[in-house]
Amino acid sequence: MSLLQQKYAALINPDVLRAHQKPILLATGITAAVTPLLAYAWSCYREWLTLGPGGIPYHFFGWLLQTSLHLIARSDTREPLPGPYKRLEDVAAMYGAAATKSYFGNGQSQIPKRKGGRPTIPTFVAPQRQTSDIAPAAVVAAEKAFLDALAAANTSLFEARNSKLEGPLHQALWLRLPSASTADDAEKQKTLQELRTRVGRGSDGEFAHVHGEGSVHVTLSPADAKAAIEAEWAERHPIAGVWGSRAMVPWGFVLVYAPRDEAEFAVFRELMLAGARYVTEGAGVEVVAPE
């Protein structure tokens, strides 16, 4: 009898089986419990990969990182006011006087209700994307062109360059923040700190960018974010406002859904302009809307 035959003969020996019964049962139980979890994790990972690169490393460890972010992420992204706040003024207080205002064209925090319900947004923390009502490539190009035109029309206020929040594959609109060295008195330092809090401590001034499927992230005033969420044009990012004034992105950092027609593209334009007016409040320069 060969060594291999002797090995398997020993494994089926009744005395050997009885001696190893408990460990075998334990291993079998662990395998039965873990296998569905591994299958679910693999399925989630494959679904996450379909969203494409954005913000965090595009591999298994990036997926694990975003999974760990669920420990701090918010689930009330479609609530007009984030819990536990009951009043808009309480949310706005950490961002200064600018945060209590609306910056829509009519100045009334009014926005028409979006028709047809919200698109599907998977529950991943990052990247945040929509997987239904995907915009055609021409619409995505038009969105990017509008942000570029907004930067070109307001060169003293904005610049268009690679995104920090989403990575170099995405172009973003940045507020030209004054450097700390030019803020040579206490009042200017206070203004600079307020601006950084307004756009998020982790954004470095980035306040808008377009995704490949047509959705857009933009920082709105809390008043306008509330109105956009109520009208079902947007929802907050899962980590928006987490850690309050030290947040990477503020409470008004929302995902605006991809426009489906010309009328919705007009709403997209107005939302981008509202964000631009908000982040530049107090600069003493009026935002010029592109033609």
Placed side by side, the strands forming the largest sheet appear as 1-2-3-4-6-5
The Rg value, from CA coordinates, equals 25 Å
Secondary-structure element series: HHHHHHEEHEEHEEH
| First-last Cα distance | 88 Å
Number of strands: 6
Count of distinct structural domains: 2
Largest sheet: 6 strands, antiparallel
Task: Classify the helix fraction into a percent range.
Answer: 25-40%
Uncertain stretches: 1-8
| Count of separate DSSP helical elements | 9
| Structural class designation | alpha+beta
The shape is globular
Describe the model:
With 291 residues, this protein is α+β, with helices and mostly antiparallel strands. The chain folds into two domains: 3-49; 68-279, no CATH class. It is built from nine helices and six strands; from the N terminus they run H-H-H-H-H-H-E-E-H-E-E-H-E-E-H. It has helices spanning 3-11, 14-19, 21-49, 60-68, 88-92, 137-153, 186-199, 222-230, 262-279; strands at 158-162, 171-175, 206-210, 216-219, 234-236, 253-256. The protein has a six-stranded antiparallel sheet, covered by helices on one side. A hairpin with a 5-residue loop joins strand 3 and strand 4 (216-219). The chain starts with a helix and ends in a 12-residue tail after the last helix. The model is unreliable at 1-8 (pLDDT under 50).
